[in-house]
Amino acid sequence: xxxxxxxxxxxxxxxxxxxxxxxxxxxxxxxxxxxxxxxxxxxxxxxxxxxxxxxxxxxxxxxxxxxxxxxxxxxxxxxxxxxxxxxxxxxxxxxxxxxxxxxxxxxxxxxxxxxxxxxxxxxxxxxxxxxxxxxxxxxxxxxxxxxxxxxxxxxxxxxxxxxxxxxxxxxxxxxxxxxxxxxxxxxxxxxxxxxxxxxxxxxxxxxxxxxxxxxxxxxxxxxxxxxxxxxxxxxxxxxxxxxxxxxxxxxxxxxxxxxxxxxxxxxxxxxxxxxxxxxxxxxxxxxxxxxxxxxxxxxxxxxxxxxxxxxxxxxxxxxxxxxxxxxxxxxxxxxxxxxxxxxxxxxxxxxxxxxxxxxxxxxxxxxxxxxxxxxxxxxxxxxxxxxxxxxx
Length: 392
Ligand code: PHB
Hints:
The protein contains 13 helices and 15 strands. By secondary structure, the protein is of the alpha/beta class. The chain folds into 2 domains: 23-141 and 281-354, Rossmann fold (3-Layer(aba) Sandwich), CATH 3.40.50; 144-273 and 360-390, Response regulator (Rossmann fold, 3-Layer(aba) Sandwich). Strands 7, 8, 9, 10, 11, 12, 13, 14 and 15 form a 9-stranded mixed β-sheet that branches. A 6-stranded mixed β-sheet has the order 2-3-1-4-5-6, with helices on both faces. β12 and β13 form a beta hairpin. Residues 100-102, 123-126, 171, 223-224, 252 line the site of P-hydroxybenzoic acid. This is ABC transporter substrate-binding protein.
């Protein structure tokens, strides 16, 4: 509340002309984890932004575009709100983008209306974020969206009993609910549902519970980063995999940048997701080349880069539609129903929810001819909306 008052005062000053808006440079403030354990995820945001600007230019309709990055190393709503306020008030950004973790997005959306600023989310994946402000648009995915096709696939592959294990916060709960719904509708049964604190890093007790459950498979969601690497390592190293318990997860758990560290332990893991770095299309080839150049090497690329790349596409369309003027409502309205070909495949902004409609792919970690692990797309579920936001 105090924060909002401060923002109000500063915005008032801006309107009175005590703080003058800079000439014709459109500033975009991007919040992400650029340092700390999740730094590679943030670097993927930056690679996506830089790839987009390298391929599409640094100005729109004669308006120069300037990016201001702000580091938010871990989920921290208070710091997220403070950074967003500072970007709007002090740096005078016209657009906010980025945001890796759900709680950080939830802390920003209440500010958007007063700030007259759209937020384009590059990652945070809880369905309900979209209901918290009409000025938020999302170019990533939701865990309900990526997970739903997996329920039927699992049952069709002979899996009857599953233990679900998720991080206990928005995207984890959404994943648990969506998987259970789809899997049980197909005929399966979730025999146990475990929610772990977000900061869990010792997974041995969980692995014991998985074995004790006698389930045919574990369904898991954790936010990508050191967390997922630790979980998949534990699945391999504590004998759960050797005991024959199958693995099901959204692709957050087999992001490409983790595959070298997982070695042969990753091969065969079954996931569903909106993007694989290996996706075979001319658009993705162009994107991967530019993004790899931006981040330093193709091995570091992962899904946040494509969320950022498409996020920039949306922001450029907003700048075009408003001809550089700050009008958040007009900017958001202009991209409702927008469709284009992303590096991940055909996508569109659902005008009802402002979330991305996209293909979800079933993938299996495989080795290429050079012995390098990758997510191999084996089936496409076309044109998926977010089932977490669909009318009941
Ligand atoms: C989220 O906090 O919304 C989040 C973070 C990382 C992921 C997925 C979702 O891999």
